[in-house]
Amino acid sequence: MRHQSLFIVIFVLLLTGCKQTEVVPNKRQGLISENEHLTLGNPSNATVDPSNYNNFLLEKPQYVLSYSRDTSIPNWVSWHVSTDWLGSAPRQDDFKADESLPGDWFRVSPGSYTSSGFDRGHNCPSADRTRSQEDNSATFLMTNMIPQAPDNNRNTWANLEEYTRSLVEQGQEVYVIMGNYGSGGTGSNGFARTIDDGRIRVPKQIWKVLVILPEGNDDLNRISANTRVIAVDTPNSNGVNSDWSLYRTSVDAIEKATGYDLLSSLPEDLQQVLEANIDKGPTQ
Ligand code: MN
Ligand code: MN
Q1: Which residue in 3, 37, 80, 122 is the catalytic one?
Q2: What is the pLDDT of residues 169-204, one digit of tens each?
Q3: Which distant-in-sequence residues (6+ apart) come within 8 Å of 148 by Cβ?
Q4: Cα of 130 to ligand 1 centre, how many Å?
């Protein structure tokens, strides 16, 4: 009887011990967001408080963004691309206002860009969300759009988007953050600072940061000083070169231009290394 009790006590202690080793805090664990699209952090500390109207967090199952009420475009959009997100759902082309915005805010409609000389440029691309019709349809919300110069959208950006998905097809998974800054771009009708009677700002520059990992689990903890990070910053102008690789820059340069803290979920020392680098890897 005494031996049995002792055995049970030791057994329980062992179990407790094992449990404790499992939950030993990892230095990055406390920073991991539940939302896979915010794994690398929230670059502008956007919040769901509507009084934070120019840095308003919109979390969708397919992507997350910071929206600006006064410019009627996202500041940045963040999403994860892996084979899980790719399937055979056709392009829905169902551009629509985002009814999830606070009720008294101006809502960009599908026709707001008509005859502006700028494309309804996706941030999270339609072709990155083909697992289901619903996922694809979500990319056509107007809160996922910026007025994008046609040459930039159809050539430079389309090539970078294609390259990103080709990496996924080769066994990688990619965390993408796209954003913009400044005002004034050159579309097919010439230069404009805004469209839709001043309601929608035309960005001057459009940037993107890609963090590329072999497909796997526990992604944040697998990012190291050797992880490939691609940062590009392109002019929102017709005449932009269709070769995105000419616009490669450092994450540091984008942080300086925007005031955001990118990759903020990573330890500072790792951010310093990754963010100072300019990618020189393959581009197709
Ligand atoms: Mn596009
Ligand atoms: Mn950073």
Answers
A1: 122
A2: 999 999 999 999 999 999 999 999 999 999 999 999
A3: 118, 119, 120, 121, 157, 185, 206, 236
A4: 15
